[in-house]
Amino acid sequence: MTPMRLLLIGLTLWGLVMIVPDLLRVAQPLGSLGFFANNDGLIYDGTGPFPDEASSPAWRAGIRAGDHLDLERMRCTLGELAKCGNSLAVLGGLEYVLPGRAVTIDVAATPVRPARQVTLVAEQPPSNFLVRAVNVLCQIAGILVVLAAAWLVWTTGAMSWGFFLYVNWFNPGQVYAFYAILEQWPLLLLAQDVAAAMAQAAGYAGLLLFVLRVPNNKTEARWRSVERALPIVALVLALALLASYGSAFGYPTETVTRTAILAGFVVDFGPLAILAVRRRTQTPEDYQRVRWVIWGCLIGLPSFLIAELASTTTIFETRWGDFTPAEDIIGLLYLVNGILCLFVFEALRRPRVVSVSIPLRRVTILGLTLSLPVLLLHHEVERIQESLHVPGWAWLVIGAGAIFLITRLHEGAVHLADRFFNRALDAAELELGAAILKAQEAAEIDRLLAKEPFQRLNLTSAASFRREGSVFVRGEAPRVGTAPRLARSTPTRRC
Question: Would you call the peptide bond into 215 cis, given omega within 30 degrees of 0 as the criterion?
Answer without folding.
Answer: yes
